[in-house]
Design brief:
The chain is an alpha+beta fold and 239 residues long. It folds into 3 domains: 2-80, 3-Layer(aba) Sandwich (Rossmann fold); 82-105 and 169-239, ATP-grasp fold, B domain (D-amino Acid Aminotransferase, Chain A, domain 1, 2-Layer Sandwich), CATH 3.30.470; 108-167, ATP-grasp fold, A domain (Dna Ligase, domain 1, 2-Layer Sandwich). The protein has 7 helices and 14 strands. β3, α3 and β4 form a beta-alpha-beta unit. The radius of gyration is 19 Å and the shape is globular. The relative contact order is 0.12.
Length: 239
């Protein structure tokens, strides 16, 4: 196969996609890697019909690779994932609304264009997890203990754009990352960004039937083929 991987600058040194690209080449596939965030793009020539069998995007929210992926789809190419599906999950506020509406076990989610608006959240909802709606890889995730602590953090949150806030789900300090590849599911356990003192190493772990069902359902709800989803094992079950 002839594959084109679109890799944003944020991920250029990550195992995904570099290890995936290496393995695909070892299997005899032809793989071209484009860095849309680090290249001058001639958009009239960037996407040639039939040049690649499939386009794969590893992106940050709003990254320029999404534009190329949409252009490839418009030219009739196969893309992984669909550009509209990527937009739907990269916006955490939108993803929460879609997921709750389709029955996924998501915590109640608040969204605010300005951090001072989060002060309207009832004190009974604290502690809160506050993060950018377009964040990724655990960036700028905050555990906010009280309304007073939120008030003190407003300057720090001011430059993050749209924010989402959710009641903190008590957990052991570890997250499960469930990956779906071609319909096959597997999971790793890793330290939560909210518990930096945890000494849990990242490792493969067995996938329970309940968590596997959530992982598979996520792909159906958002229209994804290749994805990862974070799962917390809370007191009332996985979320």
């Amino acid at each position: 196969m002839r594959l084109c991987f679109l890799v944003e600058e944020h991920y250029r040194h990550d195992g995904m996609p570099n290890e995936v690209v290496r393995q695909l080449k070892a299997w005899g596939h032809r793989v071209e890697v484009l860095r849309p965030g680090g290249s001058l793009l001639r958009m009239s020539e960037a996407v040639e019909a039939g040049a690649h069998d499939a386009w794969v995007l590893k992106t940050v929210s709003g990254g320029p690779g999404l534009t190329l992926l949409e252009a490839a789809a418009a030219a009739g190419a196969t893309t992984v994932n669909d550009a509209r599906a990527i937009r739907g999950v990269r916006d955490k506020a939108l993803a929460a609304a879609i997921g709750r509406g389709r029955g996924l076990p998501l915590p109640p989610t608040y969204a605010a264009a300005r951090p001072e608006l989060l002060a309207e959240i009832p004190a009974s909802q604290y502690p809160l997890v506050v993060k950018p709606a377009d964040g990724s890889s655990g960036r700028a995730v905050h555990l906010v203990s009280s309304p007073e602590r939120l008030a003190a953090m407003l300057p720090e949150l001011a430059g993050e754009g749209m924010l989402v806030a959710q009641p903190y789900v008590p957990n052991s300090g570890t997250d499960l990352k469930v990956y779906a590849v071609g319909g096959e599911l597997f999971a790793t356990e890793r330290r939560s960004p909210l518990h930096p003192d945890s000494s849990v190493p990242e490792r493969l772990v067995p996938l329970s039937a309940e968590v596997a069902e959530i992982g598979a359902r996520v792909g159906e709800v958002y229209g994804l083929d290749l994805y990862g989803v974070d799962v917390l094992l809370g007191p009332d079950g996985p979320v």
